[in-house]
Design a protein that fits this description.
The chain is mainly α. Helices cover about 35% and strands about 10% of the residues. Strand 1, helix 5 and strand 2 form a beta-alpha-beta unit. About 20% of the residues are buried.
């Protein structure tokens, strides 16, 4: 693949954010954060009702505060059908039964529960967990690497390395790793600089002049075809 956009490395080394410290402080003091937000429109933020604060905390820790794009569920349905196929992969192509899907997120530990509340079938496996637990039946997400757990945010290559180690094929030297994300610097460039294949999800068509197709897609409907056509040389 040729990359039209140049992803420049940080001359002072990778961007490293000890996000677990940031999120620990925010999570332990969320009520103050909410009151501070209300202080811009209310002279005495201490009068914000506790019931309202509790409602806001719940809203953004569940499906009440989010929704899936319309192409997400159909993508996972197609992916599941493909992963279950018994047809042998063509030479050099991905083997459907050995494809795993994970989440790499610059976020806190609510990611798994939020995605589950939106209807995705989540594995309990996450970075730093004492045990992966047992996962039965069909899964949409096989593992989760959150900056809250790892201690570094994208584009730091260490969160990508942590994600690799969560994969069932981490010990295999010829594994293929493809990242799909909507932020050019954190997702697209971060993955490239970590040695992954990278696709930019450009839903609003804002980066047409920066990233060439097939590395740039506008929705998930075309991602399956891209995955089915991937070969190792295309990912380096």
């Amino acid at each position: 693949m040729q990359h039209l956009r140049r992803c420049k490395s940080n001359p002072n080394g990778p961007l490293s954010v000890a996000s677990y410290h940031i999120f620990s402080r925010v999570r332990s003091d969320e009520r103050k954060v909410i009151r501070s937000t209300f202080s811009t429109i209310q002279p005495n933020p201490g009068t914000v009702p506790e019931g309202l604060i509790a409602s806001l905390l719940h809203r953004f820790a569940s499906n009440e505060g989010y929704r899936l794009y319309d192409d997400v569920v159909p993508f996972f349905q197609r992916l599941h059908e493909w992963r279950m196929t018994t047809e042998a992969a063509s030479a050099g192509k991905l083997e459907p039964s050995r494809v795993q899907v994970g989440v790499i997120s610059n976020s806190d530990d609510r990611v798994t529960s939020i995605l589950a509340s939106l209807g995705l079938r989540m594995s309990p496996q996450r970075w730093g967990s004492a045990t992966a637990g047992e996962s039965k039946g069909r899964l949409d997400i096989d593992w989760v690497a959150m900056s809250y757990d790892v201690g570094f945010e994208k584009p730091d290559r260490r969160i990508f390395e942590a994600a690799k180690n969560l994969s069932a094929f981490a010990t295999e030297s010829d594994g293929l790793y493809l990242h799909v994300g909507d932020n050019v610097e954190e997702d697209y460039c971060g993955a490239l600089e970590a040695g992954w294949g990278s696709i930019l999800l450009d839903r609003d068509d804002q980066h047409r002049g920066h990233v060439l197709k097939p590395e740039r897609i506008q929705d998930l409907s075309s991602l399956m075809q891209t995955m089915q056509n991937l070969t190792k040389p295309e990912l380096v």
